[in-house]
């Protein structure tokens, strides 16, 4: 009887141990199987639409946004001066709960007469308005901007700061009205490739992550009634100022930047 009881205990322990190992293996498989979708196919700009200030939707002045060597490139070799031609390239779909991840590098010389603040500066725009709803002479889409920033001997700035064109956010229960908020990232020098990720949960919480480190968190993205786009966009948003979805776009602010990967993981 005692022998049978011991065998039963040993069998039960072995079963539990095997089940735990199976669950761990399943978790690993789920991680590997995350369904990241490539928004940029490495061949052309299929699925993307350009909007540059002062030009009609779809007019890619100076071939600013182009594909070369498998990269989406933002380049100004056709510009004599920048002339405030801020540009954005929009993906065709809107998203609410997701992770977006890009691999990018800022390089080269800034376009002549581009603003000083735009030096080694670009961005990922999330929860944005549609390009069709933008005014022809609008600088930036109303959105949440995740800044992509580089440092050198001329300027030192943290990376993946937050800017809010036409929007506001909350942090620690407080409505933040300032236009830009710094992250706590390290400084990024040189032209190395950087991995930037944004984790977006609708109108709840948004995280900025660079090279695996979370450097900024905030919540409740919303339209700013002080902005000229507010009357139109609050109407298009069903009368609600809170933003729980929107477009994704990449910036052209006057400094060359390459993107070799742009991918998204849609969350439940």
Spans of at least 5 consecutive residues whose pLDDT stays below 50 are 1-20, 24-32
Radius of gyration: 23 Å
Structural class: mainly beta
Corresponding CATH architecture of the largest domain: Sandwich
| Name of the CATH first level of the largest domain | Mainly Beta
Q: How many separate structural domains?
A: 2
Distance between the amino and carboxyl termini: 52 Å
Amount of helix: 10-25%
* Separate helix tally: 2
| Biggest sheet descriptor | 10 strands, antiparallel
Mean pLDDT rating: 91
- The total count of strands amounts to 17
The CATH superfamily of the largest domain is known as Exo-inulinase, domain 1
- At the fold tier of CATH, the topology name of the largest domain is Jelly Rolls
Overall, the morphology is globular
Account of the 3D structure:
The chain is globular, with a radius of gyration of 23 Å. It has 2 domains: about 1-35; about 35-265, Jelly Rolls (Sandwich). The protein is mostly beta strands and about 270 residues long. The protein contains 2 helices and 17 strands.
Concise account of the structure shown:
With about 270 residues, the protein is mainly beta. The chain has helices at about 1-30, 230-235, and strands at about 35-40, 50, 65-70, 70-75, 85-90, 95-105, 120-130, 145-150, 160-165, 165-170, 175, 180, 195-200, 205-210, 215-225, 245-250, 255-265. Strands 1, 3, 4, 6, 10, 11, 13, 14, 15 and 17 form a ten-stranded antiparallel sheet that branches. Strands 2-5-16-7-8-9-12 form a seven-stranded antiparallel sheet, with no helix packed on it.
């Amino acid at each position: 009887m005692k022998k049978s009881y011991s065998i039963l205990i040993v069998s039960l322990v072995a079963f539990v141990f095997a089940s735990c190992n199976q669950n761990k293996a399943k978790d690993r498989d789920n991680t590997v199987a995350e369904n990241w979708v490539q928004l940029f196919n490495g061949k052309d700009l299929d699925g993307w639409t350009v909007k540059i200030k002062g030009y009609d939707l779809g007019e890619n002045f100076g071939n600013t946004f182009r594909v070369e060597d498998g990269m989406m490139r933002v380049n100004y070799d056709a510009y004599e001066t920048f002339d405030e031609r801020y540009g954005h390239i929009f993906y065709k779909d809107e998203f609410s709960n997701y992770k977006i991840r890009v691999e990018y590098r800022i390089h080269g010389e800034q376009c002549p007469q581009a603003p000083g603040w735009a030096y080694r500066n670009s961005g990922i725009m999330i929860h944005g308005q549609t390009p069709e709803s933008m005014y022809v002479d609008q600088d930036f889409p109303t959105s949440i901007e995740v800044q992509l920033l580089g440092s050198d001997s001329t300027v030192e700035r943290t990376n993946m700061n937050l800017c809010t064109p036409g929007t506001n956010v909350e942090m620690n229960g407080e409505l933040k009205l300032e236009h830009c908020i710094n992250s706590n990232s390290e400084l990024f020098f040189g032209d190395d490739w950087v991995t930037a990720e944004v984790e977006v949960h609708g109108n709840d919480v948004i995280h900025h992550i660079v090279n695996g480190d979370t450097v900024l968190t905030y919540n409740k993205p919303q339209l700013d009634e002080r902005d000229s786009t507010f009357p139109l966009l609050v109407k298009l948003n069903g009368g609600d100022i809170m933003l729980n979805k929107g477009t994704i776009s990449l910036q052209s602010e006057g400094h060359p930047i390459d993107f070799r990967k742009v991918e998204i993981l849609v969350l439940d």
